Amino acid sequence: MAGNGAVKISVKNLKKNFGSLEVLKDISLEVTEGEVVVLIGPSGSGKSTLLRCLNQLEKVTSGQILVDGCDVTDKHTNINKVRENIGMVFQHFNLFNHLSVLNNMTLAPVHLKTLSKEEAKEKALQLLTRVGLADKAEAFPSQLSGGQKQRVAIARALEMNPDIMLFDEPTSALDPEMVGEVLAVMKELAKDGMTMVVVTHEIGFAREVADRVIFMEGGYIVEEGTPDEIFNHAKEPRTIDFLSKVL
Amino acid sequence: MVMIIQTYWEMLLKAMGQTLLLCLLSLVFASVIGMIFGLMNVGHNRALNFIGTVYVDAVRGVPLIVLAYFIFFGIPAAIQGLGFSDFRLTALQAGTIALSMNCGAYMAEIVRAGIQSVDRGQMEAGRSLGLSYGAGMALIVVPQAIRTMIPSIINQFIITLKDTSILSVIGFPELTNVGKTVMGNTFRPLQAWAIVGIMYLVVITILSKVSKRIERRVNRGR
Ligand SMILES: Nc1ncnc2c1ncn2[C@@H]1O[C@H](COP(=O)(O)OP(=O)(O)OP(=O)(O)O)[C@@H](O)[C@H]1O
Ligand SMILES: [Mg+2]
Question: Which superfamily is assigned to B2-221 in CATH?
């Protein structure tokens, strides 16, 4: 589960402004292969923005982000190619509402010709089985529960065969009884060695699965360490203060 | 009234045909214009946004009748002035251009609103899978936008069908123009315009019934 050393993501002095608002002030961070990094922090601290910079859904203001050694902030980089390798799971699932579960999953690989139609379908059915939704292939998103939608969204991302998965509060929009089924899928992924960056308020998940926990506030990384170091022996007063509210 | 119909039915039906021809041609071109300028307006390219906004505002800001005069009389005069002394536009050509431009501007707004009604997360999910902006638009956003656009599109089509009557001013032999002839020949304005009005009404009612059916069909797959 723990990282084996090869650097997958390297962020150097990342800054991001929205107009005059400085959201990320000076972020440097490395994620190694197979590592599970959990980002925590109060609302507005910039967790989503950081995650979205990693696959360039947000353009950075300054600094550098290397994914597999490839500088994604360089405008000569083919960002679409890089994104094929970085799956992303959103808080609100963002399933394509006009397409069946199966077509949600096969759309991108078929269009991008990373898989043939038959291969894509076969792979989608395997993945759906893996997330426990083999019987939902023909369903439309509107016919699924929140937990099922999110599991489809994860499967859809996995269909591209990514090396890295980004999760932005994947369980925050779910009814409490559905959180477990999504976290279970994520735990499986972590166990299989996926490199993961997860923004979440699920401290239990972080304790169990994270190799490293990063606490962000006000656009800075305030403190980072193993789950034990952060949750049981935090050093920074701001971390302690935040944890006292969420634990 | 019966006498008018007996005498003029062929002329009136032919005029209806001209109305429908002008309308149909204009709708086809307007759809293309609307799609192009609508997409220009939702993109993030400042220059394209600017062109799109100027087009929509300019065309919407000018009465159709003025646009029709401008294209029918103004444009040929300008081109003749450049030395092409034989250049003319037929009433059908000028009418189609004017109506396409007019309807196209409204369609552009419908397309823009439709695309903006689709949650931003849809495009983001597409992009995060590696799709280009264009592929995300074509495969994910536009198909969903069209569903919300359909009622407005139908509405616009009906307005455009009625707007063909304005092109009577440049002498295009559509229904309203022929209505004038009938009135002049018979001295029975009440009956003549009642017949013309009913003819519009029938065609538009059929058009909206058919459209409603299409709308329902499209929405069923949701
Ligand atoms: N597209 C945007 N335009 C302007 N401001 C933005 C935009 N996106 C985020 N922000 C601002 O940036 C700041 C950080 O937002 P971000 O979403 O990264 O925080 P977060 O840590 O993910 O918070 P939350 O826990 O509420 O999701 C907030 O003040 C937010 O209002
Ligand atoms: Mg967030």
Answer: MetI-like (1.10.3720.10)
